[in-house]
From TrEMBL:
<dbReference type="InterPro" id="IPR015943">
    <property type="entry name" value="WD40/YVTN_repeat-like_dom_sf"/>
</dbReference>
<feature type="region of interest" description="Disordered">
    <location>
        <begin position="446"/>
        <end position="465"/>
    </location>
</feature>
<dbReference type="InterPro" id="IPR053143">
    <property type="entry name" value="Arylsulfate_ST"/>
</dbReference>
<keyword id="KW-0472">Membrane</keyword>
<feature type="compositionally biased region" description="Polar residues">
    <location>
        <begin position="455"/>
        <end position="465"/>
    </location>
</feature>
<protein>
    <recommendedName>
        <fullName>Arylsulfotransferase (ASST)</fullName>
    </recommendedName>
</protein>
<keyword id="KW-0812">Transmembrane</keyword>
<dbReference type="InterPro" id="IPR039535">
    <property type="entry name" value="ASST-like"/>
</dbReference>
<feature type="transmembrane region" description="Helical">
    <location>
        <begin position="20"/>
        <end position="42"/>
    </location>
</feature>
<keyword id="KW-1133">Transmembrane helix</keyword>
<dbReference type="Pfam" id="PF14269">
    <property type="entry name" value="Arylsulfotran_2"/>
</dbReference>
Length: 465
């Protein structure tokens, strides 16, 4: 055979080998995919390891693609109005004091007077307190987190909770900071959403972690699962008690409530978003729990519950005419005040949210506030409310970036719009406003500590970038 013929034959053989190899690898991939799908769907070992790897891969991909800029985080919403700062302040009708709120544009909180002037501001990025003891080895950039909740402690210092976007767990921890934004203590457990401060300075908080345990007769609660814990911190920020909330529910007479979790929440079945301490005062007229117990809110289950921290068991739980609720507060008369995020279905023009005051004995509504076509009220997630000393209610409409105060008759007597705006990267001409997850009115007595400082008030009534 001549040299050209041998070369042609060799090239043909190489092409054939490549085609055969490609077909072989495609077949292996198809078989592997089929076996993998069968293993996962039929739950044949090692299906859990494969399932975990798939979840981790998709989560990493989402983190690298979805969270590419700060303005695309769910800490920002389309601005509903061009109004900024205080837009309503009706003489003597509002409860006087200072208003504390945290904003989705970063780890900071602002204290404003009734005219919207900044009286004080705190700011401390998570990078200043993160260390090797944190269960979050590689936290998100500081720009990708904010203080979901900021509350003033009895001594005037601020306690804050860090929430990150694009990470799970998303709760990064807590810190107590002084008026100069310097840390007093830090707690790097995965604290999330909410906390409650006792009169003696102890802090009742929520933490979260992945667990791999299973429960008899509840195969839907498959591991790994993001579970919540109720923790008690000393006034110095040291953890002194820790209770698994899911264990406390399943080991109670209310365990069957877990079986009605929606399909999408089995990997975060409770999604606890509120913890409120029952004090000696509120326990007097509240028959569902005693002083030292905590009230919890399980968003996706639609449940309000009471957890006995001593017995580590849920002692009361209920569902009612609310949907996606937040912030159930026990009032001095024994009723529960809560933010019903999505339960207002009668009038779509008025918005889907409302504030409900509930009699826990009957689940009957004893008072409510809902929006109108002219004053739409709508926050599908987050948000809270506070019953004030004069009987009014301060409401945080998180998705709208708005705070407002209403009388028992439903009149809006004070209103404030977060003045921060940024351009929407996906919708030219559209402005974005950072969410306001939580706010509280500080009485004049407690606010005196900050009114007497040398901080120069600055008007927030302007469009700030």
């Amino acid at each position: 055979m001549s040299a050209p013929e041998k070369t042609s034959e060799s090239a043909e053989n190489n092409r054939g080998d490549k085609i055969f190899f490609a077909a072989f690898m495609t077949g292996i991939a198809a078989i592997s995919f089929g076996i993998g799908a069968f293993v996962i769907l039929a739950e044949v070992p090692p299906y859990q390891s494969m399932k975990n790897a798939w979840r981790a891969g998709t989560a990493l991909w989402e983190q690298r693609t979805k969270y590419s800029s700060v303005e695309r985080l769910d800490f920002w919403s389309p601005a509903r109005t061009e109004k900024t700062g205080v837009t309503i302040n009706k003489a003597d009708k509002p409860q006087k004091g200072l208003t504390l709120y945290s904003s989705g544009d970063g780890p900071h909180a602002v204290l404003i007077d009734m005219d919207g002037n900044i009286v004080h501001e705190w700011r401390m990025p998570f990078s200043e307190i993160h260390d090797e003891t944190s269960p979050i080895p590689n936290p998100q950039k500081d720009d990708f987190m904010h203080w979901h909740t900021a509350k003033m402690a009895p001594d005037g210092d601020l306690i804050v909770q860090y929430t990150a976007a694009g990470d799970t767990p998303y709760g990064y921890g807590m810190a107590k900071i002084d008026r100069n934004s310097k840390p007093v203590w830090k707690y790097l457990g995965t604290a999330h959403h909410d906390f409650s401060i006792a009169p003696d300075g102890r802090v009742y908080a929520l933490t979260q972690e992945f667990r791999f345990n299973t429960y008899p007769n509840r195969k839907q609660l498959t591991p790994p699962r993001l579970d919540d814990f109720a923790v008690i911190l000393s006034p110095e920020g040291k953890e002194i008690k820790r209770v698994s909330i899911l264990d406390a529910l399943i080991n109670s007479s209310f365990a069957n409530m877990v079986d009605f979790a929606p399909y999408f929440s089995n990997e975060d079945v409770l999604h606890t978003n509120t913890i409120q301490l029952i004090t000696e005062e509120t326990a007097q007229n509240f028959a569902k729990g005693k002083a030292g117990d905590v009230v919890l809110s399980f968003r996706d289950l639609g449940i309000i519950a009471v957890l006995d921290m001593d017995a580590e068991k849920v002692v009361w739980a209920t569902r009612g005419p609310w949907l996606g609720q937040h912030d159930p507060d026990v009032l001095p008369n024994g009723d529960i005040l809560l933010f019903d995020n999505q339960g207002q279905l009668a009038d779509p023009q008025a918005g889907q949210s409302r504030i409900l005051q509930i009699d826990p004995e009957t689940n009957g509504i004893t008072w409510e506030y809902k929006g109108t076509a002219e004053q739409k009220f709508d926050s599908n997630i987050r948000a809270d409310q506070q019953r004030l000393a004069n009987g009014n209610t301060l409401i945080t409409e998180s998705s709208g970036g708005r705070l407002f105060e209403v009388t028992p008759e439903g009149e809006i007597v004070w209103e404030f719009h977060n003045p921060i705006r940024r351009d929407d990267p996906d919708n030219p001409g559209q402005k974005l406003i950072p969410v306001v997850s939580q706010a509280e009115r500080i009485s004049d007595e407690r606010a005196a500590l900050y009114r007497d400082t040398d901080f120069t008030p600055t008007s927030t009534n302007g469009d700030t970038q």
